[in-house]
Amino acid sequence: MRTPTRHTLLGAAGAAALAVTALTTLTTLTGCSIVDGVVQGVSSGVSGAFSDPNVEPTEPDIVIEVRFEGDTDTGSSARVDVDSPTSGTSYREDSVELPFSKEFRITADAFLPFRGVTASIEVPEAGKSVSCEILIDDHKVASGTATGSGSRAECERRLRLGPS
User: Fold this and answer.
1) Domain extents for the chain?
2) CA–CA separation, 104 and 64 (whole Å)
3) Dihedral, CA of residue 130, residue 135, residue 140 and residue 143, to nearest 10
4) Peptide bond connecting 124 to the previous residue in cis, omega within 30 degrees of 0
5) Digit-coded pLDDT (tens) for 68-123
6) Which CATH fold topology does 61-158 show?
7) Which of 22-26, 30-34, 64-68 has the highest mean pLDDT?
8) pTM value?
């Protein structure tokens, strides 16, 4: 272990003295109209930006799109569940025209704004196959296909911590 030399101790004392001098100078300048004007200008500029009625602060949204397709004109028992603490929603239809697309927007103003989305659709009696697809911010994150009358195509995307 190295013992401090006289130069190191004087350096630390010098740094402390410099800090005290700077603090004293700043305290003295706060009464100065120049410093007050700068502080007032900055604070009024900041508060003015938030109080402007023409400017609305917006949070970015997470855009979830669910798509259903098939070899017929309709799909049966379409279901979508979006799990979000702020913008969760469900969609149910006994019959939907194919191809089908529905968009959901999740506000990103919570710590974990999105927990997951599940979607499913059944092959109708007249059909052979259906598929579902989930896109989040235009990126395909899940898909599923079903074949045979009465079978169900399911797709799901859950929140994953870490790389996905």
Assistant:
1) 6-51, 61-158
2) 5
3) -30
4) no
5) 999 999 999 999 999 988 778 899 999 999 999 999 998 887 788 888 999 999 99
6) Immunoglobulin-like (2.60.40)
7) 64-68
8) 0.61
- pLDDT band at residue 41 using 50, 70 and 90 as cut-offs: very low
Residues 6+ apart with CB under 8 A from 74: 95, 96, 97, 98, 124, 127
* Full DSSP string of 39-94: HHHHHHHHHHHHH-TT----PPEEEEEEEEEESSSEEEEEEEEEE-TTT-EEEEEE
Could you tell me the CA-to-CA distances from 109 to 13, 25, 53, 58, 87 in Å, in that order?
Answer: 48, 42, 21, 9, 10
